Amino acid sequence: xxxxxxKIAVIPGDGIGKEVVPVGVRILQACAKKYGxxxxxxxxxxxxxxxxxxHAKMLPDDWVEVLSRFDALFFGAVGDPKRVPDHISLWGxxxxxxxxxxxxxxxxxxxxxxxxxxxxxxxxxxxxxxVRENTEGEYTELGxxxxxxxxxxxxxxxxxxxxxxxxxILEYAFDLAQSRPAKQLTSATKSNGISITMPYWDQxxxxxxxxxPDVKVESYHIDILCAHFVQKPSSFDVVVGSNLFGDxxxxxxxxxxxxxxxxxxxxxxxxxxxxSLFEPVHGSAPDIMGQxxxxxxxxxxxxxxxxxxxxxxQAADDIILAVNAVLGRGKPDELTRDLGGQASTTQLGxxxxxxxxxxx
Length: 360
Ligand code: NAI
Ligand code: MG
Fold this sequence. Notes:
Blueprint: E1 6-13, H1 17-35, E2 39-43, H2 49-55, H3 63-68, E3 72-77, H4 86-91, H5 94-100, E4 105-111, E5 127-133, E6 143-146, E7 154-157, H6 163-178, E8 184-189, H7 197-209, E9 216-221, H8 222-231, E10 238-241, H9 243-257, E11 264-268, E12 276-280, H10 297-310, H11 313-329, H12 345-357
Helix pairs in contact: 1-10, 1-11, 1-12, 6-7, 8-9, 10-11, 11-12
Bound molecules: 1,4-dihydronicotinamide adenine dinucleotide and magnesium ion.
Magnesium ion (MG) binds next to helix 9.
């Protein structure tokens, strides 16, 4: 659906975002050179606390118009709580993008990385995706509080699940499962306790599965599913969940691989009507900013996800292979400090770039 040259808005944001995004850009360009496609990059300084200090707002007034022209947004991290409160910086940028651009899929990989030890003794090979519904479900503003300050004080918050909302996230998850060798989809439910919305979710899963006869579907209640994530993480392929369940699973999944700090996340509008956003999971790390010591791998994972989304799966795989190769050989002068080495952000980036461009 997307065609080269791919139009990409580059938004570094704050803190180490400004250090890891340039490494990400270099790797995108290396992939473009190797695989013969083009990336048309435009850099933006908004969605940052610097911009906020100059303009008293996080984004220019015409941001929707400006960003809609792009195929994808390559994002670093936003936030610098000493200068601007987080609710202003995050709600005034990232969270607006998610809503305005109807990025109804949140996608995260859980993948073991060679040379990065995880918390489990014998986890096997972990390689699966978590697909989280990103717009409705348990996260709504429907509800309220009454009898303030009295004995009867009461709060209510509603869960909203629409057929359209469930079906479109399931369709994305089934398509993804269909495209993978294992073709296996796991649905997170809790229909034994949440007796209206979750049985409805299960019913939509059953309905959707009729359209995907090759995809093997299994369904687990969220509590035992969390246990399985820890006990047999290598048995999953694609896992789909509501906004809340997906939120929990998308931290737990990467955490069992030990690589949560290296993880990336995609906020995706699969229709292509609006641009999708790809970013590392970590924040702007003000404590280490400006020292060229941040680990750029999360940003590179984000680049890999973006290339897969744009229709360059080989280049996307290549980034992962290069990361595995460099981290796997474990040379201190190619690893940043958080990985036990002495390399700078740029040196680790150089090593990955060499790996990608090396003759096979
Ligand atoms: P953080 O992820 O920025 O940092 C947590 C710890 O991990 C820090 O000690 C940091 O030095 C370390 N760290 C993070 N990324 C690293 C990397 N690539 N290499 C080496 N070490 C790394 O989370 P924190 O400190 O809670 O938040 C800092 C700011 O980032 C806040 O303003 C927060 O709101 C924002 N934030 C933004 C996100 C986004 O843009 N999506 C996500 C999470 C936090
Ligand atoms: Mg979370």
